[in-house]
Specification:
The chain has 286 residues and is mostly helical. It has a domain of 62 residues: Serine Threonine Protein Phosphatase 5, Tetratricopeptide repeat (Alpha Horseshoe). The protein contains 14 helices and no strands. Helix 5 runs antiparallel to helix 6, helix 9 runs antiparallel to helix 10 and helix 11 runs antiparallel to helix 12. It is elongated and about 80 Å long.
Length: 286
């Protein structure tokens, strides 16, 4: 029987035979209609901008209403639209600040800080600069740095400490540059709280090391508390730990120096009871 092919293939066949190739089966008009339908479907999926015909004043009013009602997730995009519509005007600056506030209240603290940094970079002479510093301090401020917070956990993360220090820096700049600002008194109180909390944390860690017999580590943390946070209530406990640690290491000269400083800055009773066994720190209630 004769071979059905008169010559061999000179090139590889198409991976899809023409009869079954889905792209080649469609006619050109049908393909064009399908593409148009896809484009129209995509356009219909785009949400209509309800603010397209709004004035900047109306956008601001709507954004403020949402923010005042606690709808911070709805207020933020409205303030962002207002920034663009009113660019270069005081209203745009106001929108930036109020967007930062809505981000802060909505739990978006990193975003709030970024917004405030941008505001302060763009408007260094703004009359609201003191408020921007105050709000940045609040965004970094952690109410859980206090007594019972660090008592309930062994470690304070580096992130918490970094945020606390950045919060302190914002408040400090506010107090130094704008001492008459309406936000300065509260900023000063928060600075005191931050310093006391961070110092108390250092002392807490020092006591933790001391109770486990790590006297060299206890000395290092107590010294850090005394050097970095002077004049705070935790200094008394830091000096007690220092004296006790030197006592345990047999370093009597350094022990006596610590007791001398303790007596000079606090009381004779404090120095006399510093080396008593199992003496409780001033903050311990049980």
């Amino acid at each position: 029987m004769a071979h059905r092919y008169n010559r061999p293939f000179t090139q590889a066949p198409h991976p899809y035979p023409k009869a079954v190739c889905p792209m080649l089966r469609c006619s050109r008009p049908a393909l064009a209609l399908a593409l148009v339908a896809g484009v129209l479907a995509g356009c219909s999926a785009i949400e209509e901008d309800k603010t397209a015909n709004w004035t900047p004043e109306r956008i601001y009013t709507e954004a403020r209403d949402e923010s005042n009602a606690g709808g911070y997730d709805k207020a933020v995009p409205l303030f962002e639209k207002l920034e663009g519509r009113a660019a270069g005007t005081p209203l745009a600056q106001q929108a930036q600040l109020e967007k930062a506030y809505a981000q802060y209240k909505g739990g978006e603290r990193p975003e709030a800080i970024a917004t405030l940094d941008r505001f302060m970079k763009l408007h260094p002479s703004s009359p609201a600069y003191d408020y921007a510093l105050y709000l940045k301090g609040l965004a970094n401020f952690n109410e859980n740095l206090g007594l019972f917070a660090w008592l309930s956990r062994q470690d304070l993360s580096e992130r918490d400490q970094k945020a606390a220090k950045e919060s302190y820096e914002s408040f400090a700049e506010l107090v130094q540059r704008f001492p008459s600002s309406r936000y300065a008194p509260d900023a000063q109180q928060r600075m005191t709280y931050i310093v006391n909390s961070l110092a108390q944390y250092e002392v807490h860690v020092a006591r933790y090391y001391y109770q486990r017999g790590a006297y060299v580590a206890a000395i290092a943390r107590a010294q850090a508390a005394l050097a970095d946070y002077q004049g705070v209530p935790a200094s008394e406990e830091a000096l007690r730990i220092l004296a006790n640690s030197y006592e345990q290491l047999g370093m009597t000269d350094l022990r006596d120096d610590a007791l001398r400083v303790l007596k000079a800055n606090f009381s004779a009773d404090s120095a006399e009871t510093a080396l008593q066994k199992n003496a409780k720190p001033w903050w311990q209630l049980w």
